[in-house]
């Protein structure tokens, strides 16, 4: 039963890896997408790809010693766990950055391109990856002895991590708490803005606001509990047969599966590229989409009693 469950989890992560790989290629071809949205989405997909690959290797090496010495097995598992933590932090920070970017585009539509420039977007991505690597390194350096010990005991007593020290709680628990609060604040602010602007947005653009609502709800269902459970694990520790670790693995598999759908495939240009790659478009459909994309730009309209203004925003599509 345990082996069957392990292969099911590995299969889900493999499917998620394929979906994220397709999403990455679609983003690479979508030149008409807003630069800021495109670069953040690409980094998000890359983080999910690394996370999927790390989890697949992690599950294969964590309990299988066939043809591998114990020390090598522990080291491989340790490296894959470090990669999982690195990409987990990166994904959490990137989701936060996309939520803040979406909030700025709604709150300050006419100053958006000045506030969120391409240079600042690139810099923020570099900072996110570096900070995530530092956090993951700090966590594993602090728990290196306990990490090695737990994998040796795994084969003897069927035990897992028994708890983390105070500094590790600060690294994992406080970081996840900050990420959770920032995301909840950003999405709550987005929902408030959506309701306030609903009567001032044209009928054709209301579907865009529904997409924002869907993404906010998806975050509340997936990423929020994921952060909360990580905080609980950082405080109390985990056992291999603990319900917490099973729920975290389940939520992780759903997160990496749904992230490319929420943050990549919801754009028309990306869906067009996916259909082109999979050969799902007939010639007439391809020509119609290509003609529409030649005139493609993303707009939303703010109406008031005095004026009607139009602003180009790539992340509103």
From TrEMBL:
Superkingdom in the source lineage: Eukaryota
Keyword entries, A-Z: G-protein coupled receptor, Glycoprotein, Membrane, Receptor, Transducer, Transmembrane, Transmembrane helix
Transmembrane helix found in the keyword field: yes
InterPro entries, alphabetized: GPCR_Rhodpsn, GPCR_Rhodpsn_7TM
Main location: membrane
GO CC terms of this entry: plasma membrane
GO biological process: phospholipase C-activating G protein-coupled receptor signaling pathway; positive regulation of Rho protein signal transduction
Sequence intervals crossing the membrane: 6-27, 39-62, 78-100, 169-195, 216-238, 244-265
SUPFAM superfamilies registered for this protein in UniProt: Family A G protein-coupled receptor-like
Domain G-protein coupled receptors family 1 profile, first and last residues per copy: 19-263
Pfam families membership: 7tm_1
Location in or out of the cell: Membrane
CDD domains: 7tm_classA_rhodopsin-like
Topology class, membrane: Multi-pass membrane protein
MF term (GO), any: G protein-coupled receptor activity
Family: Belongs to the G-protein coupled receptor 1 family.
Protein name: G-protein coupled receptors family 1 profile domain-containing protein
Species this protein is from: Pinctada imbricata
Organism phylogeny: Eukaryota, Metazoa, Spiralia, Lophotrochozoa, Mollusca
């Amino acid at each position: 039963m345990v082996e069957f469950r392990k292969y099911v989890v590995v299969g889900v992560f493999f499917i998620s890896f394929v979906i994220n790989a397709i999403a990455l290629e679609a983003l690479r071809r979508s030149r008409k997408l807003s630069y800021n949205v495109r670069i953040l989405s690409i980094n998000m997909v890359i983080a999910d790809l690394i996370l999927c690959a790390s989890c697949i290797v992690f599950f294969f090496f964590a309990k299988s010693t066939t043809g591998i010495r114990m020390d090598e097995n522990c080291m491989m598992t340790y490296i894959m766990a470090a990669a999982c933590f690195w990409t987990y932090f990166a994904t959490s920070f990137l989701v936060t950055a996309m939520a803040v970017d979406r909030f700025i585009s709604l709150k300050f539509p006419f100053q958006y391109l000045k506030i969120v420039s391409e240079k600042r977007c690139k810099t923020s991505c570099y900072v996110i990856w570096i900070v995530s690597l530092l956090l993951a390194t700090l966590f594993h350096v602090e728990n290196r002895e306990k990490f090695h010990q737990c994998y040796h005991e795994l084969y003897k007593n069927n035990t897992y991590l028994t708890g983390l020290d105070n500094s590790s709680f600060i690294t994992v628990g406080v970081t996840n708490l900050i990420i959770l609060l920032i995301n909840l604040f950003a999405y709550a602010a987005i929902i408030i803005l959506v309701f306030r602007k609903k009567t001032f947005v044209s009928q054709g653009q209301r579907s865009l606001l529904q997409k924002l609502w869907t993404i906010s709800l998806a975050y509340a269902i997936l990423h929020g509990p994921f952060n909360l459970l990580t905080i609980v694990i950082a405080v109390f520790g985990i056992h291999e047969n603990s319900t917490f670790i099973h729920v975290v693995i389940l939520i992780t598999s759903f997160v990496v599966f749904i992230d490319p759908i929420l943050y990549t495939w919801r754009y028309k240009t990306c869906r067009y590229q996916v259909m082109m790659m999979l050969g799902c478009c007939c010639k007439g459909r391809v020509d119609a989409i290509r003609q529409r994309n030649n005139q493609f730009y993303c707009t939303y309209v703010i109406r008031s009693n005095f004026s009607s203004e139009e602003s180009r925003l790539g992340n509103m599509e």
